[in-house]
Amino acid sequence: MDSAPVSAVIPCYRCAGTIGRAIGSIAAQTLRPAEVILVDDGSGDGTLERLHAIAAEHPAGWIRVLSQPQNRGAADARNAGWAAATQPYLAFLDADDAWHPRKIELQYGYLQAHPEVSLCAHRHEVLLAPDVPDRPVGGVVAERISRGSLLLSNNFLAPTVMMLKRELQQRFLSGRRHVDDHLLWLQIVCAGHAFMRLSPKLAYTYKRPFGESGLSAQLWMMEKAELENYWILRREGSIGTSAALALSVYSLAKFLRRLVIAALRAKPGAGPTA
């Protein structure tokens, strides 16, 4: 099968129940990444053995398994995979998410045609059923993401992003367990790199972005990290003090709204809330 010069990096923490779906969605790509790097983040529960077993089910060398001795979070695991990647392009997937079969084909094709773009994302979809749909994509429209819009909101989960590795000096913030992706996208854009979003929904996530299990349930920790992001950018000189203050107020207002939505969802018999 044809492949693209892309390294797919997946941080893995106690993901034995979902990693098969994630890898299956990569194997089903119309244009496969040249390599897949699985980074066990100190799971200690048999996940590492599961990763090696999955690697053995595929062509030799296509899936590489790395092991972190301690659990340090997805940011450090992604950085470890980034450092080990041998291909010029990087794509990220989480162990409990999946890709549309045409994700690599369309995103890599766009980056190849637009070498001035270092960072490219696409839309995603939250699914309740555990399947991986193969829906028609339709037309592809590219939209430039401005620094201002990215400061106000992070609509780009790590599984939606592909980047040109050699152009970027930034990395995920080591030790950060929340909103590390938003900080990285901001640092890349603030450094002057072009960030584009493609219109199709080419990634699937199986939990809402906040208010449910896992890291997304820790609303206050996520809020603290978002506030810290603005002040990191302030210290780096990317934004001014007044902007950092205004963004912090705006972020806190969003946080209060999320608390209300999470409370409504927690009520017995409550249906989905937009």
CATH-defined architecture of the largest domain: Alpha-Beta Complex
| Number of continuous helical runs | 8
What is the tally of beta strands? 9
Strand content: 15-25%
Series of H and E elements: EHEHEHEEHEEHEHEHH
The global form is globular
- Residues in helix, %: 25-40%
Please tell me the total number of domains.
2
The major beta sheet can be summarized as: 9 strands, mixed
CATH superfamily of the largest domain: Spore Coat Polysaccharide Biosynthesis Protein SpsA, Chain A
CATH topology-level name of the largest domain: Spore Coat Polysaccharide Biosynthesis Protein SpsA, Chain A
Task: Give Rg in angstroms.
Answer: 18 Å
List low-pLDDT spans. none
Question: In terms of structural class, how would the helical and strand content be classed?
Answer: alpha/beta
Average pLDDT figure? 92
Which CATH class of the largest domain is shown?
Alpha Beta
The termini sit apart by 40 Å
Show the helix and strand layout.
Blueprint: E1 3-12, H1 19-27, E2 32-41, H2 47-56, E3 63-68, H3 74-84, E4 89-92, E5 98-99, H4 103-113, E6 117-126, E7 142-144, H5 147-152, E8 162-164, H6 180-190, E9 194-205, H7 219-235, H8 241-266
Parallel strand pairs: 1-2, 1-4, 2-3, 6-9
Antiparallel strand pairs: 4-8, 5-9, 6-8, 7-9
Helix pairs in contact: 6-7, 7-8
